[in-house]
Amino acid sequence: MDDPEQVRARLEETGYLVDEGLAITCFLALRLHRPLFCEGDAGVGKTALASALAEALGAPLIRLQCHEGIDASQALYDWDFPRQLLHLRAAEAAGVTDADRLESELYDRRFLIDRPLLRALRTQPSVLLIDEIDRADDEFEAFLLELLSEYSVTIPELGTLRAEEPPVVVLTSNRTREVHDALKRRCLYHWFDHPSFARELAIVRRRLPRVSARLAEQVTALVQALRGAELIKPPGVAETIDWAEALDALGAAEVDAELALATLGSVLKYREDADRARSLDLTAALAARGV
Q1: Residue 143, Cβ neighbours under 10 Å: how many?
Q2: How far apart are CA 145 and CA 35, in angstroms?
Q3: CB 203 within 8 A of CB 17
Q4: Cβ atoms of 61 and 51 closer than 8 Å
Q5: CB atoms within 10 A of CB 90
Q6: Spatial separation of the C-alpha atoms in residues 265 and 273, rounded to whole Å
Q7: What CA–CA distance (Å, rounded) separates 23 from 20?
Q8: Is the separation of the CB atoms in 235 and 267 below 8 Å?
Q9: How far does Cα 282 stand from its chain's mean position?
Q10: What angle do CA 283, 285, 291 make, to 5 degrees?
C-alpha cells in the first residue's frame, strides 16, 4: 500500500473504520517494518485492527495470546518429544548405534513444533498479533525485545532462523500494567480511545448492516451514556455491537429503557455495573440524543 489514504481505504473495505492518525501509523508500520503497539481499554478495536490488516494484506493472522507465566517454549518453539521417542526406538530396532547420527536425526526440523512466534517468522507474508502483552511478565517482554529487533531466533540445535520478510506485528495492551519503555521504543504507538457518537454509530452500521438505523442509534446513545456513569468496566465498541446484535436477534427494531435493562448482560459484565445502570434514567439518555 503506497500511502496512508490507501491503507485507510483497504481497511475500510474489510469493515474496519480508521481515522487519519491510525491510517498514518499503520502505513508507517508497514513501510518501516516496525511493530505497532496498540494500547487502550478492552473492546475498542485493537485486536480487530490486526484481523483487518491481515485481511487487507491477504496474509494469515497468527495470534499469540499472552498470559501470566508464558515462556519461550509456549510462544516460540518446542520439540515433538513423542515423535522423537518413536524415532529413537525405530532406530534402535534397526540396529543404529551411532550416537552422533541419532542425535542429529532427533533434532531435525521435522521434529520442531512451531509456536506462534516462530510460525510468523517462517510464514511470508504474515500478520503477528501479540495480544494483551500487559498480562505477560518482565522476562517475556525482554525476550520479545530481542526477537523483534532482528526478526530472528537462534535454536541451539539448528542455528539461527531469520525471517526472509518481517511479519507485520501488532502488540496490544489493555494497560493492566505498564509495559517497559524499552519495548515501546521499538514500536510505533497508537492510543485507542472510545469513539465519538458519530464514529461509533458508523462502526455499528458497517458491522451490522441488517440492524435498523433507529436501533443502532439508540444502542450507541445508551452505550455512550453508560460510559459516563463511572462503571468498573465501561463498555467498548465490541459490547455496543454485541448489544445491537442481541436486540436484533430478539426482533427489536428499537429499544426502550425496559428492554435495555432486560438485556444488560450483553453489554455489562459486572453486577455492580448493572446495578449502577439500573439507577440511571435511560429514557432521558435516549431523549438527549434525540433518538
Answers
A1: 18
A2: 11
A3: yes
A4: yes
A5: 10
A6: 10
A7: 5
A8: yes
A9: 32
A10: 80
Question: Rounded to an integer, what is the distance from CA 198 to the centroid of its chain?
Answer: 24
pTM: 0.88
* Rounded Cα gap, residues 183 and 170, in angstroms: 13
Nearest to 223, CA basis, from 159, 286, 130, 290: 286
Distance between alpha carbon 149 and the CA centroid of its chain, in Å?
Answer: 21
pLDDT grade for 101, boundaries at 50, 70 and 90: confident
Tens digits of per-residue pLDDT, 119-152?
A: 999 999 999 999 999 999 988 998 898 888 889 8
How many CA atoms lie within 13 Å of 24's alpha carbon, on the beta-carbon side?
5
Q: Could you tell me what percent of the chain has a pLDDT over 70?
A: 100
pLDDT single digits (tens) 57-72: 999 999 999 999 998 8
CB 264 within 8 A of CB 240: no
| Residue found under cell 515433538 | 80
Four-residue CA torsion sign, 117, 121, 123, 126:
positive
Number of other CB atoms surrounding residue 49 within 10 Å: 24
